[in-house]
Amino acid sequence: MTALHIVLWILAILVIAAATVVAALGVRRDRPVAGLVPVVPIALGLLLALLGVRIPSHSPVLEALLALVIAAAGVVAGSPLTMLILRRTAPAADAGRGASENAGIRADSDRVRATGAASPGGTADAGGSAGAGIGVPDETLRPSSASDAPPPREVLRGGGVIGYLERFAIIGSIALGHIEVLAAVIAIKGLGRFNDLDSSAARERFIIGTLVSMIWAGSCAALILVTGLIPKLG
After folding, report:
1. Which residues span the domain enclosing 225?
2. Domain-located, residue 138
3. What's 36's DSSP letter?
């Protein structure tokens, strides 16, 4: 292994590590666009690997470090990437709300929306019919404006921590050749979130976030596989 090869390996490690730090800072500062930074070196590495470009290395230390920083990028950068996609696909009323308090998403229950649609005035008497009660002020029977509507409730709380664990499990299982673990991860996540998925908006955003997270983690695990780092480390 020549000095040039060593420099290229160290450069790859430093670039991916720096990109991972940028992504982590993006999460802390609520700048999810920072998650796009690690996409560049990971995508470039996959492209070079698929084209058959190989840089010789006989240093287990460099190979271990490269595998670790790729895995770290897969775990850390998945969070801002998922946040970015979810915000880009968020409803217009929720697009400018920023990050939620508990790393969840905001969505109204279908039952709440159905009740609101059935009661234009926003009120109902004890029998359940809107405006049928006696002594109800006239102003309460008027349709409320969109600005008066309560904000969507937060669902899928704790999604940030769950996402980190999910991507860690995905990268580890793929890199080590135990793809069957993916089925368990998906099943655990789906069953654990079942009660939160009571609205079509929550289900849609749950699917989008899960797919983005899994695709990113799978891409990083694929880069570790195609570069042959795991077999060499073993």
Report:
1. 3-100+153-233
2. no
3. G
Give the tens place of pLDDT for each residue, 66-77.
999 999 999 999
For residues 174 and 225, the answer to whether their CB atoms sit within 8 Å is yes
Query: How many folded domains does the chain comprise?
Result: 1
Between the CA of residue 127 and those of 113, 116, 120, 139, 141, what are the distances in Å?
A: 19, 16, 16, 20, 16
What contacts 196, CB < 8 A, 6 or more positions away? Answer: 155, 156, 202, 206
pLDDT band per the 50, 70, 90 thresholds, residue 224? very high
Residue 113 forms part of a structural domain: no
pTM score, whole prediction: 0.72
- Domain annotation covers residue 125: no
Closest CA to 225 of 183, 173, 186: 173
- From 163, 167, 165, 157, select the one nearest 196 (Cα to Cα): 157
Give CA–CA dist 131/124, Å, rounded: 6
- Classify residue 131 by its DSSP letter: T
**118 in a structural domain:** no
Structure tokens that stand for 102 in this block = 């508990």
